Structures are given as C-alpha cells and as structure tokens.
Amino acid sequence: MILTGATVVTSLDPVRIVRDDVLVTDGCIASDGGGGGELHDCSGCLVVPGNVCAHTHLYSALARGMPYALEPPQNFVQILQRVWWRLDRALDTDGIRASALVGGMEALLSGTTTLVDHHASPNAIDGSLDVIEEALRTLGARSILCYETSDRDGPERAQAGLAENRRFAQRVRREQLPLTRGLIGAHASFTLSDETLAACADAARELEVGLHVHAAEDDADERDAEALHGMRVVARLAHAGALDRRTLLAHGVHLDDHEIGLVHAANASLAHNARSNMNNSIGRARLNALGPRVALGTDGIGSDMFEESRAAYFRLREDDLGAGPDWPLKRLAEGARLAADAFGERGLGTIEPGAPADLVVLDYAAPTPVAADSVAGHWVFGLSSRNVRDVMVAGEWVVLDRRLTRVDQEELAAEALGHAERLWKRLDEIGPHQFEPKGGRRWPSPLTIE
Ligand SMILES: [Zn+2]
User: What is the predicted pLDDT for the residue at 445?
Assistant: First the structure.
C-alpha cells in the first residue's frame, strides 16, 4: 500500500513533516519505495498518527441521554453512587458488547486508533474483557484493557475482578493477540482494601504489566486515604508497591507536591481527562507541576481526541498563557508512548519506518501554510474529527471515506438502540450505591502545600 500526495506529520513530539509517499508493508511503515503496491490517493490531505485515548470507559457508551429520576448529585461521590455505580451493575454481556461496539466505532470514526479502557460490570465480570476484546477486534481497533477491581461490591467481586485481569493478561500473552494488551485494573484507593490493593500490585509485578487506577480524582479519595490509612493516595499506592514506571494513574486532580514527587520518582504516567474533570466539577489538575508524563483521556466522554485535546488546551490556557499550542500534541504523543510501551512497539504513534501503521487521513484544505512549526496551530485552531476521512490500524483500512470497512455502522447503531433500552430499563430498578468513602469533611493536610 502506498499513500500518495499527502503532507505527512510523521511525529507529534517533536513535530516532523514530510511531503512524500507513505509505504505500508506487513502492517508497518516501510522506509523505501522500490517495489510497487496499491496506491491510495491522499492528494491535498494531511496524514497524522492515529490518536490514543489513554483513559476511557467504553461501558458508558450507551449512557448518553439515559433517564435520571433520583435526587440530583451534589458531589463526585454522589455522581458515582447515583449514576455510574448503577449503570455498571445493570450491564450484562450483551450490554457490554453493544457498549464496546458503539464506543469503538465512534473512536475509529473520530481518528482514535488505540483505546486504553477501564471496564466495570460487577454483575458480569468473568469473561467481560474477552467480550470487549472481541468487539474491538471486529472493528479493527487497537486496545489496552483492564477490569476495575474494587471492594465496593464486596470481597467476592473484588477477587473476581482481579482474577479477570489476571486471566485476560495471561490470555493476551498466550495467544499473542496482535491488537490487544492487558493491564491490571483497579478502581481507586477509596474502594480498595489493603489486601486487594496489595493483590493488584502483586499481579501487575508478576505479569509485568502496569496498574491502571484512578488516583485523587476527587478530594474524597484523599480524605479516605488519610482517614483510613494515615497517608495520601499516591503514598498509599507507593507503600503497597503499586507505583512504578508502568503505572497509569487517571486524573490526579488533588495530588499534592509530595505525591507528584512520588509520581515523578517512579516515572509513572498520568491520564488527564479535562472534559470529565470539568463535567464533574472536581477541580483542576496541576498540569505544570505534573510535567511531561501526562497523556490525555476522555474518561468515557466519547473517544474524540481532537475534541479532548482542544478542550484540555483551552482549559489550561484559562490559567496559563504560557502554555503553547504544542502542549496538546506533546500530551497525545505521551499517550502513544505509553501505548507503545504496553505493546512493545517503539514507533507506535509515529509514521516512521518500522512503526505499526496506525494513521489517520485528514481531508483538510489548509487555508494557511502547514509546516513543522505551524502544525500545532492547525491542530488547536483548525483541525477536528470532522476532517477524518480514512483510518488505518496495523496496516489495514478500518475506516474508508468516513465509513467503517468491517462492520455495517447503521446496523450496529440500530442494534445498540435496543440494547440501550434494555440497559436503561434494568438501571431503573437499581437504587443508589450504598458504598461511602471514609474521611468525612475536608481538613487541611500536613502534606498539602497549596
Ligand atoms: Zn475513569
């Protein structure tokens, strides 16, 4: 396959551009023409690396517009108790599959080729990651999956969640699934007992994969850790042996200087979810203090990384005029780096020789010059997922002319409607979750410098 006529952004950090054919052989970017190949006309297009969503929840894909009849939530914990911890308990295997298909479809159509998913379905745990893997494989998306281990639904489900992570990570390795990797998933400090957290850390170490865990998304997580464990969230993770260079923390909004120091010392990664943080009114992540190992996720608000990266940028600029338009590109490159680590594919996230051919063809009639020093400006002020025309994952076209190539997308959406109705009906019969974090009201922490 030879992509012809495009301006190619071969790397997002640093930005590199070539105006040359892109050769794809055996699923990877090849270095030299030489032989022939099928031509794919990309004249006038911009070709960019496939986007990586570093933290999402595909299980929430059928939540949009669902009815809500309870008292409106007043804080983050109530949002979990009254919305997400009801939805996850309503999920069965059909609902998991339909959610993954809808979420995966929308990801690919918006130019996201890799999804780092964090799944919860307490009444359908065993085999749930296989269901998601199969749905995403059907579509042709790349994924890094885990199950959200938690004690909030009792010790049996905590054990079942961890067992699902272990089983799936072992299956990925045994079957050498090309487009999927497993992590050990855990919900958050405030729903994890010491025993469960230690078991998650052990599993991650033993299987040599990362732990994917929410950390200090809301201050309630910190208060709980201080009240029950006498230390803050990241200190608790470190104490449990759950913080290393493979660890992926989600949110980290309330991390103090000491915790950020621990994250840096461990060289762990953090997925920043700007729109979700705004939507839940939980505060602002300290992005400048957090530094370079910050990737971007959607936390389940779709998987459109053009939209997410722009929103994250504008939210940051509101506080910090020093942030340049290259900031979102560096964050997206960081997401690709952590995916590359998980896959053991060094070039993932670039369009450079040897890299897996995950790329997006943008139909973009640039009205101003496109060069290495102007790509960031185009990204933030011009491009969006409406420009996504074709999408390739591992050398295969999974979207052509804005349509999925492997699945009938109208049929998929029509089937999802039925599943959504059944899911919402079950949800209606489930009351608010009774689990409460400890720690009561906020008090000043000796470790908090702000
Ligand atoms: Zn999340």
Answer: 41
